[in-house]
């Protein structure tokens, strides 16, 4: 009881704790919603590549005297547009994504070599630095997160339909190509926000793992989406609490919780007897 009281007092009295919880909560919500569609559309590699682009953006921003968050937003959005424009395929842009990934890593190394004074801050970009989120960064995260949620709410039904069955969606007049580019931009923004919490190297912990767990537990899109959201919030909040109580980085706690949960669910699922296959509900029925 005394520990909970101390944590509550920390939240009330320490601005950096409030900033961390508010920013972490928004990041968890956005990464959960976007991450579900990333898993559904098999675009995990794109999210991975864009996180590395964020590293190049952060180091490049240091050369220009800008904040790392600004640099990450700018370069990841440009990379997402480039990935969307390189090919006309709807999904699985593996070759184009790999090109962007390798080029971004090279840029990051170049910028870091030129501006060696930024080397100490690079650890925060690579592994997350939620406790150092400023009040302005927190406000930017909240505003951008609300914008992402608003855009997703507007395109939710056609995006879900085109993610499950792109050929049929295109035949019914849904702008699948445009939705694909818009969603890549949303991934770019989401990854940039998630880097503050878990860093470039651990971004999968919030973007991919909650959705991967949810899809193992249910085939119903809306149920899986809500479950992804709950898992993302749980990993983030528990990771923050453990970070306050312990001495290890928050990113480690979040990634460890996510990995343990995934392997636990996978293990239990393999132990269960096989069940009769059921068709996935049609997206029109789920969205009515």
Q: Which features characterize this protein?
A:
288 residues, mainly alpha, ABC transporter involved in vitamin B12 uptake, BtuC, globular
Descriptive report:
It is a single chain. The chain has 288 residues and is mostly helical. The chain has a single domain (2-287), classed as ABC transporter involved in vitamin B12 uptake, BtuC. Helices cover 81% and strands 0% of the residues. The chain has 14 helices and no strands. It has helices at residues 2-13, 15-40, 44-64, 68-86, 94-114, 119-127, 135-164, 166-171, 176-198, 204-207, 209-217, 221-245, 250-271, 283-287. Helix 3 (44-64) crosses helix 9 (176-198). The radius of gyration is 19 Å and the shape is globular.
DSSP strand content: under 5%
Name the CATH superfamily classification: ABC transporter involved in vitamin B12 uptake, BtuC
**How much helical structure, as a percent, in the residues?**
over 70%
The whole-angstrom Rg is 19 Å
Order of helices and strands: HHHHHHHHHHHHHH
CATH architecture: Orthogonal Bundle
Label the overall shape: globular
Unreliable stretches covering 5 or more consecutive residues: none
Return the average pLDDT rounded to an integer.
80
Helical/strand content category: mainly alpha
- By CATH, the topology is ABC transporter involved in vitamin B12 uptake, BtuC
Count of domain modules: 1
CATH class: Mainly Alpha
Number of H/I helices: 14
